[in-house]
Write a structure and sequence with these properties.
The protein is mainly alpha-helical. It has six helices and no strands.
Length: 200
């Protein structure tokens, strides 16, 4: 085999990079489409390009959703896109071997804290690796401010995967018990003393 012949590992890595790039383009396309729709809507109502409109309503800027607030199809769609990024870019590129000091869970999507952290880092990756929004230092900022702290928290022995894999040969998934939360003093008593509605 000559040096110019691609290896299977090289092709797999190239494919993973292409998938991540395509996902980034798809997200950017959706963002651009939404922006165009908003501009067209504003122009149609007389608010765009110098139009004053009635000034009574200002649209809030569209921001990405916090994934744990989504439900149904919206959650499933967002989680599927995140799963592609985790499987094709994050894990093969940035995660080291599983150990007792660097835990992991192959079923990461079953841990809400992991889903929330991974989603936040993925959103930051989309913005800070996009040449139109990131500037020259975007990737460096993403690594320093988003990726490194997230990986440290996620894979810490006391993190959300604390009861999961500590050995790459032994797959394990354990949902950690939630700590108890007592009701706020006075709230339970106040609820008990609410008068019953009068009979009609």
């Amino acid at each position: 085999m000559s040096e110019d012949t691609p290896t299977l590992d090289g092709l797999a890595e190239d494919l993973a990079d292409l998938k991540a790039t395509v996902n980034g383009f798809a997200t950017q396309l959706e963002h651009n489409t939404n922006a165009l729709d908003q501009l067209a809507s504003a122009r149609a109502s007389g608010q765009g390009e110098g139009g004053q409109g009635d000034g009574s309503k200002k649209e809030k800027p569209k921001t990405p959703p916090f994934i744990l607030r989504l439900s149904g199809d919206a959650y499933d769609t967002e989680l599927a896109a995140l799963a592609d990024w985790v499987a094709n870019l994050l894990v093969p590129t940035y995660l080291s071997e599983v150990s007792s000091s660097a835990t992991w869970c192959a079923q990461w999507w079953a841990h809400d804290a992991a889903v929330a952290r991974l989603h936040a880092v993925w959103l930051a990756w989309q913005e800070l690796t996009d040449p139109e929004t990131c500037g020259r230092t975007g990737p460096s900022v993403w690594h320093r401010d988003h990726l490194d702290p997230m990986v440290a928290q996620l894979r810490d022995a006391s993190g959300p995967f604390g009861g999961c894999m500590t050995n790459p040969d032994r797959h394990q998934h354990t949902a950690l018990p939630k700590p108890p939360v007592d009701p706020l003093p006075g709230r339970a008593a106040a609820a008990e003393t609410v008068p019953e509605p009068a009979a009609t």
